[in-house]
Amino acid sequence: MRYAYFPGCSLSSSASDYDLSLKAVCRALDIELVEVRDWVCCGASSAHATSHLLSVAMPVLSLSHAEEDGFDRLIAPCLACQLRLKAANKEMQEDPEVRERIHRAFDYQYRATVRVYHPLEVMMEEGMMEVIRSRVRKKLSGLKVACYYGCVLTRPPKIAQFDICEDPQSMDSIIRALGGEPLDWSYKTECCGVSMTLTRSDIVLKLSNDILREAKEVGAHAIAVCCPLCQANLDARQIQIEDRYRVQYGIPIIYFTQLMGLAFGAFSKELGLEKLITSPRGALEICGLM
Amino acid sequence: MEVKLTEDRGRLAERLQGITGENVMLCYQCKKCTLGCPSAYAMKMKPHELMRALQLGLEDPVLWSGTMWICLSCETCNTRCPQDINILKLIDGLRTYYLNRDYYNPVRELPMMHRLFLKLVRRFGRIYELGLVFILNLKMVDPLKDTDMAMPMFLRGKLKFFPHRSEGAKELRKVMSRLEAMEEER
Ligand code: SF4
Ligand code: SF4
């Protein structure tokens, strides 16, 4: 299967580990990724706080490149990007006034035929689970994983149309297929506060602490994530959180694609594991992977 | 506080409906939005109070509370609202309307960040993380903010010194200026 690939700003800089591991996993699953020609930033939270039209126009620019180049499916691994892209598609399909004005601003007339997928959605496509199971070389036996889905993978359901909104299961089922043990916990879709990370870090530290604390309480060896922003928050800020709240977590925040890659037998270098700030060594020793 | 609902006071709700299509009058104060809101604890005016204030047209208290900027855009409130009100869309309507207006804002750094973010994206087509952090920290007079977090990222090659440029930046600039012209027309 061939997909257009929209890495987004994070994966092309700070989250190169997610980028590497996603590509490795896709190679193993015979999924071809072709980077969208001259893509630009999705606008994140700044575009929709500035102008509604701009928040549609920025994703449309990249989506229209994919459409022009003959793609009808696109993978966006960052939660913020995938929501902005999906929301822009919906606006273009359903709001004639927005469509008319966007068309006036562009030379190419985007028809909204490119369907946007988060990598987890691709893994949930029919028949994929069997393929994933068949690729497992080293089981994650004994590894207790808290799957953290973040804010906008399943919300708002009108746009996301994926998984169970308040208690998603897709990542859990992947961890199970890899031989690991997904944990039941109640912070799967709580917000980590990342949109305030540069401005009001006090809020971010509190929300991220809540998530880490809950994961620790249910006995997680690791938290699996599916977004570069969640990862950066929970991992790079973990020391600040430990300082501020006088606690000791040391929980590695690992991309679900890195766990897949490990189970498929890829080398840790190929998966960017050395880029994680909280070392995953302890957790991976539990299942004999390090 | 006693508030009289006059025609003048209804204008804020009307203006917001014009921008967002959402009707604040549908809110019946069940508080479900506030109970699920991750940043409500940091808001002087909670989401359901914001809804009430909008119904009553209390523009100044709405602005002075800073609630629209403390909101994390996490989409929880509108997912759960039994009246199917898109609260975040209303908040976005407020943000876009007041972004460049002059008023007392207790969280000035948020609109500042959004403007800077878009300025950088306009130039490079992509976000330049280090540049954004550096300029923002200077503006917030907190130049060393998060250096303890940046160092380990830097050492692992996670923070790039120079910006990435996208070839799409030129097209983006053209689209942005066309949109601005359209918005001026209105
Ligand atoms: S959830 Fe909806 S109806 Fe209930 S208080 Fe909030 S906005 Fe009003
Ligand atoms: S979108 Fe904003 S107001 Fe709504 S629950 Fe999230 S943080 Fe609170």
Total separate domains of chain A: 2
Q: How many distinct helices of chain A?
A: 15
Question: How would the global form of chain B be characterised?
Answer: globular
- SS class of chain A: alpha/beta
Number of strands of chain A: 8
Helix content of chain B: 55-70%
From the alpha-carbon coordinates, what is the Rg of chain B to the nearest angstrom? Answer: 19 Å
Largest sheet of chain A: 4 strands, parallel
Describe the structure.
The complex is a heterodimer of chains A (290) and B (186). Chain A has 15 helices and eight strands. By secondary structure, chain A is an alpha/beta fold. Chain A has two domains: 2-117, Up-down Bundle (Glutathione S-transferase Yfyf (Class Pi), Chain A, domain 2); 138-286, Rossmann fold (3-Layer(aba) Sandwich). In chain A, helix 4 crosses helix 5 (79-94), helix 5 crosses helix 6 (96-105) and helix 11 (201-217) packs across helix 13 (238-245). The longest helix of chain A is centred in the first third of the chain and has 17 residues, at 52-68. Chain A is globular. Chain A starts with a strand and ends with a helix. Chain B is an all-alpha fold. Chain B has helices spanning 11-20, 32-36, 47-56, 59-65, 67-70, 76-80, 87-98, 109-124, 129-139, 147-155, 169-185. In chain B, helix 1 (11-20) crosses helix 7 (87-98), helix 8 (109-124) packs antiparallel against helix 9 and helix 8 packs across helix 11. The mean pLDDT of chain B is 90. Chains A and B meet through helix 3, helix 4, helix 6 and helix 11 of A and helix 6, helix 7, helix 8, helix 9 and helix 10 of B. Bound molecules: iron/sulfur cluster (2 copies). One iron/sulfur cluster (SF4) is lined by residues 36-39, 47, 71-77, 87-88 of chain B.
